[in-house]
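Appendix B, Record 12. Input sequence as logged:
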Amino acid sequence: MGIPEINNKIITPKKHKEVITEYGIQKGKWILTADVVIIGSGAGGAVAAAELSRNGWNVVLIEEGSYFTPAQFNGDEFLSNVRLYRDAGFVSSEEQTISIVQGRTLGGSTTVNWQTSLYPPHYVTDEWEKRFGLKDYAKEKMNPYIKEIHERLGVHQVPEDLINKNNNVLRTGGNKLGLHPEVLPNNNRGCIGLGRCGLGCPINAKQSMFLTFLPDALTHGAKIITNMRAIKIEDGKMKTVTAEFTPDPYDKYEGELIQQMEIKAPVVIVSAGAIEGPALLQRSGLGNNWVGRNFKVHPTVTVFALLNEEIKMFSGPPQSIVIKDGHNQDNTGYGFWIESAPYRPALATSLIPFYGKQQFDVMKNYKNLQAGIVLVRDGADGETNARIEWKFGKRKVYFEITPTDGRNLLRGIKMLAGIQASAGAKELIFPFSQMTKPYIVEKNSNFDWVLNQSIETGNINIGSAHPHGSIQAADSPDKGAIAPNFELYGHKNIFVMDASVFPTGLSVNPQITTMSASLRASRRLATEKITRI
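Logged structural output:
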């Protein structure tokens, strides 16, 4: 699949010179007006831009990251992390309690995600309604939107011939233990299992936003400008979004550049993600004290398994098998899921809790390593111990796992170790900092000891690739930052449409939920244009 020709209209730094001439821009500052400004081009912002522009709105969308075509996607892990991810792929909390992976490029995390495409199960959407008054999100109610998104993105179960060895370890071990492994649905068209999803798909198989909804928006006249970071939103009947140029560190720019934008519009949609979104609202002085609170991350830990055969975890679709917690007695989903991860050498090295020769000896067998991950739906104890704050001129992330979520994490590690051992693992590398060498698997190895491990800061290596919930929606400002229609409490016509609005943990990848909900919300908003603008 080729790049849509309409993408040539995307305003990148290379087009600044002609835009400066066309619009008569003075002193590097572009001042323009629109019906709506959308901040962020990921799952929420792209869908909103496509839907509103299709309904006749004058849309301006700005994206902090750069636009890369598949010809620029390559296997260089370091270069890709710096160019495609926020904070070069390592957003760290203040006390180093968690490391978070989040996309920062045109298309947002949809450009670098692992394709897993799931909508929340009933126990999640039931809780949304019970705790937060968010009605009609059950799958049967949302099916028209989900179906439309699935068809557009090519969502289907991973074919048998593409389920790689990394995932098959989970299926083999899980079947031996009677755990009922399931095949996951992915979003792609023509995947051949290159395993480069996290570095950008070089053959356009993964249906990210820059191949789907962003071209739709461009077709209907939307302006999409990359390398522009929103600095501040000023409220009022006519709102103003100020943005500044953010260069790519590995690109060279010639000629004049647009250094600043000032976009005036009666409607603003914030789709800047669960980390930068609340930071933007806070430094703009917008929203109530729920902005940045109850930050959800789906805490994740990794257990590496060494096998006799080559695994090559980076080969093939990253995730195709899942094993769910079968001991969740209250049916709330506050348990764990077990999946696989296709870590490339640099990331694998950072996750192995050893140093020096011990770490080097492990990495010598990198091709024989399998990576299993345990993911918990955080929030079992109510509000999370995690938040986003903008203070002292910086965005700060705070995270501490809650007791029940921590116990669920340990239960998941125990089960994962048993699965890997049943699949033939010789050694296991646990995410516990006090372990200084691999665990040797014996015939009758018992992993009950895992349940007694400490989850205190510094004792366990926790990561995340699913930040959400930090600007949560609720039917009252006492319970959330935005109303059920995604409008920011206390601020007319400022909306938030991305994963940050969902107040409790989803199933796994929040992006299908975000797209479906944004499609519904933007269609409602589109019908109100006459009264709003």
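The CA atoms of residues 125 and 138 lie 5 Å apart.
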